[in-house]
Amino acid sequence: MAVKIRKPQYKERGITWEDQSVVQLASELDLEKHSFGGYFRETDRSKDKVVKKQLQIESGDYKDVERSESSVIHFLMTCDSPVNRFHVNVTSKCIYVLQRGSGVYVCIHPDGRLETFRVGFDVANGERTQWVVEPGVYKAGYLVNSADAANETATDLLWITEIVVPGFDLDDMKFLDKKLLVEKVGSEQAAKLEFLL
């Protein structure tokens, strides 16, 4: 189910300090700030190795790389960090499992197709509790209030588990810039998505 893209308004409304319950959850999970938004902690990494093809974004060619078989992280978005910027994994499939909260995910497929969907526990209304992003697909996400996107609070959070197969490696992650965003989706759509860069 496609959803309307709407920039979170936490900062504009002065909601930049997480509620104590959110701070406590991040502490109990032993999370740290993530460089591209939110908080995270790696909870598992396979010691076994595999060789996988890594997509070279610029040329479209592939090269062999060695990676862990899999990795798992906790990832948390809060009112202080409500956006997970557009990025792509050029080697691995990313499998997401919702733990708590709600948000919106936006995916840009290699053919330029834009996919938007809400993650949450209201599955009767099309929300997803699990989703998969294949290698080469740009993805971004942002936090929304579970009851009403226009009623943001300091208790809002989006806590997910991310399983990466083969395991995450920083060399496999590329960020989207404005020029490439416009090339992929056109200037009108890019203007709506710019807050996710």
UniProtKB/TrEMBL annotation:
Protein name per Swiss-Prot or TrEMBL: DUF985 domain-containing protein
Gene3D superfamilies linked: Jelly Rolls
InterPro entries assigned to the protein according to its UniProt record, in alphabetical order: Cupin_DUF985, RmlC-like_jellyroll, RmlC_Cupin_sf, YML079W-like
Signal peptide range: none
All copies of domain DUF985, residue ranges: 24-175
Pfam family, one: Cupin_5
